[in-house]
Write a structure and sequence with these properties.
Mean pLDDT: 93
Shape: globular
Largest sheet: 6 strands, mixed
Distance between the termini: 39 Å
Oligomer: single chain
Low-confidence stretches: none
Structural class: alpha/beta
Number of strands: 10
Order of helices and strands: EEEHEEHEHHHEHEHEEH
């Protein structure tokens, strides 16, 4: 089975004054192409650090990260920036849309920054994929939170990335809108073979994934396949009790 992302014995530490904090402690994980993985854990468990290192936004102190066939540790900053731009998509809790640009202009922004030709039909097709074909000329202030997040997803997918990293993508949304966004991510995996890696604190969101990886103290504490919200919540409760 082909792997979209491979993490091998990855360790990441931070220095805070005289202290050294180990955010990740020899973590090894594989993320198959066309899979949907949720990452959960108590506060300070290392889940956001895992996402940042796996996506090439931060560098681990030791271990290896590969996206497709490319190992990140051998890349300089310019090559790493190019890889993130061409092979990785990002969706964040805060949407990160440019307020002065229309939905279509926000979606085409990664192509313009990469110096690539912008095909307006492809931009409109990306918006249609997320159900916003009729909102192409609207600015973020004219869109609901859920619509803004869907624009952000279209923007992340317009470059046809190998993997989509989502950091709390439903954290700023209400329950119904969260469900719509999660259904969209699920459809991207099932219908288009997209690989999605999502950090979340919400058991309902995690239940949309194929599997959930639980971190605690920078290590893998457990993995649940074909998760339900109830099973995820029970695992999180045990981890949080253990952390106390």
């Amino acid at each position: 089975m082909a792997m979209a992302v491979l993490v091998e014995s990855m360790t990441k530490t931070y220095s805070i004054g005289p202290s050294t904090i180990t955010a990740l402690d020899h973590v090894s994980l594989s993320f198959p192409v066309g899979s949907f993985t949720a990452v959960m854990g108590p506060s300070g468990s290392g889940k956001s650090t895992l996402l940042q290192c796996a996506a090439g936004l931060d560098r681990p102190n030791s271990g290896r990260v590969s996206i497709g066939e490319v190992e990140l540790s051998g890349l300089g900053e310019t090559a790493l920036t190019r890889l993130r731009r061409d092979r990785v998509g990002f969706v964040f809790q805060s949407f990160n849309l440019m307020p002065s640009l229309t939905a279509a202009q926000n979606v085409e922004l990664p192509l313009r920054l990469a110096g690539r030709k912008v095909d307006q039909q492809a931009i409109l097709a990306a918006l249609a994929t997320v159900g916003l074909a009729d909102r192409a000329t609207h600015r973020p202030s004219e869109l609901s939170g859920g619509q803004q997040q869907r624009v952000a997803i279209a923007r992340a997918l317009v470059t046809s990335p190998q993997v989509l990293f989502a950091d709390e993508p439903t954290g700023a949304l209400d329950t119904k809108t969260s469900r719509d966004v999660l259904d969209l991510l699920r459809a991207m995996v099932t219908e288009r073979g997209q690989t999605v890696i999502m950090v979340t604190h919400d058991p309902m969101a995690a239940a949309s994934a194929d599997r959930v990886i639980f971190l605690a103290d920078g290590r893998i504490a457990d993995t649940v396949e074909s998760p339900t919200a109830e099973a995820v919540a029970a695992h999180m409760t045990r981890l949080e009790v253990s952390a106390c």
